[in-house]
Amino acid sequence: MKVKIICGQMPVIAGRPDLNYKKIIELIASAKEQGADILCLPEMCVSGYLIGDIWEEQAFLDDVTYYNNEIIKASDDMAILFGTVCFEKGKLNEDGRVRMYNAAYAAQHGKSVGGYLGRNYIIKNSQPNYREFDDARHFYSLQKLCAEEFAPVPETLQPMQLTFKGASLAVGLMLCEDGWTENYFYNVPQTLARNGADVLVNLSCSPYALGKNKKRNRLFGAQAREAGIPLVYCNCVGIQNNGKNVFTMDGCTSVYQGNGELATAAEMYGDTVLPFSYEDGEIIPECPVAYPAQDTEAIYKSLHYGTKLFLEQCGIKRMTIGLSGGIDSAVTAAMYVDILGPENVLLINMPSQYNSEATKNIAQVMAQRLGTNYAIIPIQHSFEHTVEQLENTPIINYTTNKEIHLELSELVKENIQARDRGARILAAASASFGGAFSCNSNKSEITVGYATFYGDICGAVAMIGDLWKHQVYALGRYLNEVVFKREVLPEEIFNIRPSAELNPNQTVGKGGDPLIYPYHDYLFSAFVENWHKATPADVLRWYKEGTLAKELGCDAKIIKSSFPTHASFIADLERWWKLFAGFSVAKRIQAPPIISMTKRSYGYDHREAQLSPYFSREYYELKEELLREQLRVES
């Protein structure tokens, strides 16, 4: 029996079942015209997945149920497999919320086919509660339902029986996390295969992260190979967010042969369909494999795609960017020109007495090369006026009736400049120009709070907020060489030392940022991006053993040249850990939303509480050993 299958890699709009239903109906009509026997649609394709607590609005759930039924009616002879939410009236969870399931229907001949435990739909078994997901807050899992109804999970996981031309096809239908079985007790794909499935179908709403596609291919290829039957992975595209993180759904819908080989795959971020056929246990592809972008190309595509859709969703058609002459603002500016066009971008250079001619010249040259709107608005006068007001205005203590005056430190003066640029000039200019203004902070700066409250950490969105400094540099090169195919970012920008230029010691040629990016990028990444996060104790142990560079993935020469003594290394480690685990948390909480690129981005993806920094007992023991060793060497 030959069965034609089409995967609809559709853009899912979170919280808009009306618009998603319209797209689904279009896909159904197109699939029928192409003679499809089965149309696969992604997980949560009716409602969207990341919609916060809109799940608690009954009117919303009623609308989703209405559209679910309309899709089922539209199935006719063609089977439709689609992911959605289902709820049970009159049933409540332990916390009093309405009983809901992350579910999927197999519809054919205008009605649903099969289901679990008396329901006419299948229920997701494995619920992710990491990264952006919080499934247990909203949805009841198949495992919990089986426990409640005294039903064994392996016997409940049965394939859906679809019929074509008098013959039957057993489809092992599952939802997203059910296929990511490395750390789950139940292996859903293998259970479905043992229970008679001819083909496995995974409906997903899976976000992009650097390196994730390699893991997807490895995992789903292994599942198909171990089951000995083909596996279909149908993902959506579009963006979804949880308020603090904007995630891109990258599609990359893929189909695997029973031996685990990739048979066909859809393009990354494509609003498209993937047609193929199933016959006697084999996949017959109609399209070649569209391999997803990797490395810097993937960063560019994902940032461009996610930012563009986020701006459209927010109704932002113009952007204002503070252009300092440094790499972060340069990359941000070039990206926005690429996304919105030069006529819709306003770049503003806001020099004080500390800004060098070099960076001012770089900013102007770049604006000219981009052909965009550009203004120079100095802040020296307003900065001096603010300092004068604060230092010369008397403060009366009505308890003692004494008069005092504020004395501004150099750090306070630096922050005044940053706030003058962000909260005063950029905010007002963007309101007048239209649209919004951008936050240019990168992940290295956000990690340790190397940014000013209500200054350079404010804005509508932090486009590069999930990129380490070295990734920002690589993206700058990519923009020149591949996107614009000319040097829009002047070469000097890649060679000057990064500097905030907020005091006499931060000017180009004298001093720069306190961060040693070729080392600190990798140190901070170890603090954040691993499931088993590194702590100061781990770092000191690796340092003592001589394996630190290998563990972090950085150049050993950088560590040796930057820290000539154990004491200098320890002082640097403690400085940044105290900032990372201390006051920087408050800054991250109030920072703009981030376009998420890595496997752990700040926001809801990396969940934090405001606490005091903690150093473990092992850390203090290692510290004492190293300092004693240094004393012995010095004596």
Which features does this protein show?
single chain, 635 residues, alpha/beta, eight-stranded mixed sheet, six-stranded mixed sheet, 21 helices, 18% strand
How would you characterize the overall build of this protein?
- By secondary structure, this protein is α/β, with parallel strands linked by helices.
- 40% of the residues lie in helices and 18% in strands.
- The strands form five sheets. Strands 1, 2, 3, 4, 5, 6, 15 and 16 form an eight-stranded mixed sheet that branches. Strands 7-8-9-10-13-14 form a six-stranded mixed sheet.
- Strand 3 and strand 4 form a beta hairpin.
- Helix 8 packs across helix 14 (469-483).
- Give the low-pLDDT segments: none
Largest sheet: 8 strands, mixed
Compute the separation of the termini in Å: 84 Å
Helix run count = 21
Task: Specify the structural class.
Answer: alpha/beta
Q: Please tally the β strands and state the result.
A: 23
Quick description:
This protein has 635 residues and is α/β, with parallel strands linked by helices. Helix content is 40%, strand content 18%. α8 packs across α14 (469-483).
What is the secondary structure topology, with strand pairs?
Layout: E1 2-9, H1 17-33, E2 38-40, H2 58-73, E3 79-92, E4 98-108, E5 111-112, E6 122-123, H3 135-138, H4 142-148, H5 153-156, E7 160-164, E8 167-175, H6 188-194, E9 199-203, H7 212-227, E10 231-234, E11 237-241, E12 245-250, E13 254-256, E14 262-265, E15 272-279, E16 282-285, H8 295-314, E17 319-322, H9 327-340, E18 345-349, H10 357-370, E19 373-376, H11 380-392, E20 395-397, E21 402-404, H12 410-433, E22 436-437, H13 443-448, H14 469-483, H15 517-528, H16 536-545, H17 548-552, H18 556-562, H19 566-581, H20 584-590, E23 594-595, H21 617-634
Parallel strand pairs: 1-2, 2-3, 8-9, 9-10, 12-23, 17-18, 17-22, 18-19
Antiparallel strand pairs: 1-15, 3-4, 4-5, 4-6, 7-8, 10-13, 11-12, 13-14, 15-16, 20-21
Helix pairs in contact: 1-2, 6-7, 8-14, 9-14, 11-12, 16-21
